[in-house]
Design brief:
Number of domains: 2
Mean pLDDT: 86
CATH topology of the largest domain: Glutaredoxin
Oligomer: single chain
Order of helices and strands: HHHHEEHEHHHHHEEH
Strand order of the largest sheet: 1-3-2-4-5
Radius of gyration: 24 Å
Strand content: 5-15%
Low-confidence stretches: 1-6, 23-31
Structural class: alpha+beta
Distance between the termini: 36 Å
Largest sheet: 5 strands, mixed
Number of helices: 11
């Protein structure tokens, strides 16, 4: 931790010093004479001394840097997060706030989250939910995720998703297809659709997204600029949604 903290401090100093030096370099020669090397060195030392003598400003500076980095990351991956074309979108598809959930069908916490997310959708008519298949726990998780994505072609994702999450026994291949039949899916069509290499590609993209946002377990949530890499109680999710909505209204 100490080495990480020193790297952060060094980074902050470097950014501040670079900004100052850039400002000096861009000064209008006709209005202000260029600073000499000695003057630049003295100014840089003053900035460094101020920061070292007032370390209480560092936490705020670190938070600002982290916030900017997070926003840049969200913008960079916007299409894959919100408009990938293969993740199921539930709730109000035109909602003003979007909740993204990374999930695994063998995850006990995801199973508990099913009722929480459904309650959010029921009580918040302006909430959009995007389900990201993120199988990490076992091979059967991969099979279940592929089956869930394939079920969208038959218009049965919500029912199948719920059935998979509510399953309490081993999620074997036979059990997955048994659940598929129970919700009205054509088993043969589903099996064929599951062979598409696009499904594997989509799962790998979700894995890369989770890695980028340091979501190492399931469930994981992204709501606006808020990243929650773990299970979150209903009340906290409501607070995150409200916060995101208030910030959007201010903008």
């Amino acid at each position: 931790m100490h080495q990480i903290f020193l790297k952060i401090i060094t980074g902050i100093l470097a950014i501040i010093l670079l900004t100052v030096n850039s400002s000096m370099a861009s000064s209008d020669d006709k209005m202000t004479p260029a600073f000499s090397t000695e003057e630049k060195t003295a100014i840089n030392q003053m900035i460094r001394d101020y920061i070292l003598n007032n370390p209480e400003i560092l936490p705020e500076a670190i938070r600002i840097l982290q916030s900017r980095a997070k926003k840049a990351l969200l913008e960079q991956h916007y299409i894959r997060l919100y408009e990938d074309g293969y993740s199921y979108v539930g709730g109000n598809k035109n909602g003003d706030v979007t909740l993204i959930e990374f999930l695994d069908y063998n995850c006990g916490y995801c199973k508990r989250a099913l009722s929480i997310v459904n309650k959010l959708i029921k009580e918040d008519g302006n909430l959009r939910v995007i389900y990201k298949e993120y199988p990490i726990l076992s091979e059967s998780s991969y099979t279940a995720s592929k089956a869930a994505m394939a079920s969208m072609k038959q218009g049965k994702y919500p029912e199948f998703h719920a059935a998979l999450m509510q399953n309490t026994g081993d999620l074997t291949d036979n059990r997955i297809f048994e659940l598929a039949r129970a919700v009205g899916l054509d088993e043969q069509i589903l099996a064929k659709d599951m062979t598409s290499p696009i499904l594997e590609r989509n799962i790998q993209i979700n894995h890369s997204l989770a890695k980028a946002f340091e979501i190492r377990g399931t469930p994981g949530y992204i709501i606006g600029d808020i990243i929650a890499p773990g299970a979150v109680p209903y009340e906290e999710l409501v607070a995150m949604i409200d916060q995101t909505r208030r910030l959007a209204q201010k903008k």
